[in-house]
Amino acid sequence: MDQTFTNVVEDLLRTYRENGGINYVEEAATLPSRLAIDACCVELLSILFPGFHGEPLAHAGDLPAVTRSRVRELHSRFKPEVCKSLAAVSSTNGDDAVERLAEDTLQFFLSQLAGLREMLWADIDAAYEGDPAARSYEEIILAYPTIEAIAIQRTAHLLYQRDLPLIPRMMTAWAHDRTGIDIHPGAQIGSHFFIDHGTGVVIGETCVIGSHVKLYHGVTLGARSFQKDDHGHIRKGGKRHPDVEDHVTIYPNSTVLGGETVIGARSTIGGNVFLTQSVPPDSLVYYEAKQMAIVPKRSRSPETDHILAQ
């Protein structure tokens, strides 16, 4: 058994030497901690939705002190990770310059939270108005995965706008793990956004989504194809994902692909549609299915059994 362990370790060490790009040892301090970023996401939710995430408030009068404490805690957790993220890619000389840039980034980020919270309220209202099963705003905040996913995406988008590497993707990955909703932090999403159910939704980096848009589970707003350079490598960047204009509804398991694809305002995309072309405003897009038959089971025949088996 000891020899087996020795062989395993030697094989692993060989891959560490040969494939250094996928392991960090001496350079580990330059990478943000996933555990720390996860904790920041939890702290963010407690700030955005006080009383709903984390310890409940004993009294409304405690809110100023509690909020001040939470903001300070978030800053304290975030700053070392932002410094590490910036240091990994920054051309700035010296730790002091990296720390100043990290502080500027965090000051901007924290200053936007109040306005972002107002936008989240519009998202909660869209969920309440868009789902007949919703009984209260409290239920939506506590139990609807869309609110957690969009709250983290909107905060991560603020950092994405400041070109902060790594951390925005780590934040939305945390939300994806918890909700099954995968929204890239680069996606631009308007107000009153609602994802009903949500499981399996994918929204790509260069999507631009208008206001009052409603998606159902399994919807993909993705890339149609990837351009490659002369060496066969995928070109990074560029507009790859569709635009969805105001007041659009997209029903379950539909896929909309392509950077040039635009879903016009007030359009409805039916379920299970695969779309790679633009749709003008006020359109209804659906597949005409074969006629459905409903018959008593006792009327089944070899012919119907053959059809069912297809």
CATH C-level category of the largest domain: Mainly Alpha
Principal-axis shape: globular
Using the coordinates shown, work out and report the CATH topology of the largest domain: serine acetyltransferase, domain 1
* Rounded mean pLDDT score: 88
Total helices: the number is 9
What is the share of helical residues? 40-55%
CATH superfamily of the largest domain: serine acetyltransferase, domain 1
**How many strand segments?**
14
Which structural class best describes the helix and strand composition?
A: alpha/beta
% residues in beta strands: 5-15%
Instruction: Name the poorly predicted regions.
Output: none
* Cα Rg: 24 Å
- Would you identify the CATH architecture of the largest domain? Orthogonal Bundle
Taken together, the total number of domains comes to 2
Adjacency order of strands in the biggest sheet: 1-4-7-10-13
What order do the helices and strands follow? HHHHHHHHEEEEEEEEEEEEEEH
